[in-house]
């Protein structure tokens, strides 16, 4: 699951395109299938969103929650692809984007009535 935070007026205008860019990177780098998009957008009031100096009101935080198992090189490639594509496709400069990967062990994920380590029918690989 991916959670994206930003100032409401900026984030709401680009939600759809942002989702497309992020999911495209998830597909190309991690091999995620098209139907595996699980994005949540949290548009915040300006006075509810504090961010570091040197950033504009386009500052966007992207939290990617995923099962553990991917190699460091794969995770770095994902982060760099997102930075590159957000700048290329949406004009969002890397200084205004923060990406955090949060990993949990497969047994800590619950979906479809089972835990992630019990799922044997995933349409993608976790260990890449």
TrEMBL record:
SUPFAM superfamilies: Tautomerase/MIF. InterPro entries: Tauto_MSAD, Tautomerase/MIF_sf. Gene3D superfamilies: Macrophage Migration Inhibitory Factor. Coiled coil: none annotated. It comes from the Bacteria. This is Transglutaminase-like protein. The lineage of its organism: Bacteria, Pseudomonadati, Pseudomonadota, Gammaproteobacteria, Oceanospirillales.
